[in-house]
Amino acid sequence: MPTVHPVLAPYVRAIHVYDVEYDGPGVHIGMPSTELTWVLPLDEPLAVSWDGAPDTRTTAWTSVSGLHTRAAAVHHGDRQRGIQLALTTAGARALFGTPAAALAGHLLELSDVAPGLADLPEQVAAAPSWTERVEILQGALVRSLHRLEQPAPRGEVARAMALLTRGVTVAATADDVGYSRRRLSTLVRDEVGLAPKAYQRLARFTGAHERLRRAAATGEVSVAAVAAASGYADQAHLAREWAGFAGCSPTEWVRREFPIVQASGVLDTGR
C-alpha cells in the first residue's frame, strides 16, 4: 500500500493499488464505511450501483461515493486494475471544496464533484508505472489542497465525531461539546450527511467489518469474537446490523469475499 503524503494524511486515510483477476464476471460488495470512497479504474470504466437498485447504476472512469448506509454493487469482468482512495469526511471539503454531507448517499463522477480534477483519471492511466500513477495522483491532490484552502470542520464537531466513533452516547457527546442534542444533530448532519446516531452505528459497523476482514485474511474467523470486540450485544445483534448495512449475512459476506475461508459462530439471517 503506498504511503500517503504527509500533507494529505488528515484527508486521505489510505491509498490502495489493486490488480485482481477473477474466474469470470461478477459483483463485488462495496461496504458502507465512515470514509468516502474514490476509485480510479485503469482498463475499463467502473460500473457501480446501490445494492438491489440496478436503476442507480453508473459507468464511468471515476467513482466518488459519500457516506452511505447500504452496500454498493461493483460490477467487474475477468480483471480489475486501478487505485482506490479512502478519504476522511474532512477530505471532501479540503480536496474537493464541498462538505461530505453534499456527497452522502450518492455515486458520482469526479467531474461532478471536483471539475478542476476532471482530467486526473486520464493522466493517471497514461503513466507507465504504479509508482508514477500514485505520484501524479498525490501531486494533484496536494495542489488542490493548497488551491482551495478550505477551513477545517469546527473543532467541536470533529471532537463529537471522534467521541461517537468510540461509542460514546449521543447525549454524553452533546454534553461534552456543550451543545443540545438537537444542535449537535444539525451540525453533524451538515458536515457528514448523517444524524449522530446513524453515524455512530456506521462507525461501529466499520470497525466490525475491518475486524472480520482481518480475521478472514488469516483464515481464523469467529464472528462471535468480532461482535464482542466491536461493541455489539451479541452475534445476533451484529448479524442484524450486518444484514442491514451489507445486504447479506456475515457468513455470506465471508463466503463471497474469501471463498476458501469458513466462518464459524455465525448466526445466518437467511438474507
Automatic annotation (TrEMBL):
GO terms for molecular function: DNA-binding transcription factor activity; sequence-specific DNA binding. PROSITE patterns: HTH_ARAC_FAMILY_2 (PS01124). Residues 164-256 form the HTH araC/xylS-type domain. It comes from the Bacteria. Keywords: DNA-binding, Transcription, Transcription regulation. Coiled coil: none annotated. The keyword DNA-binding applies. InterPro entries: AraC_XylS_family_regulators, Homeodomain-like_sf, HTH_AraC. PANTHER family: BLL1074 PROTEIN, HTH-TYPE TRANSCRIPTIONAL ACTIVATOR RHAS-RELATED. This is AraC family transcriptional regulator. It comes from Nocardioides alpinus.
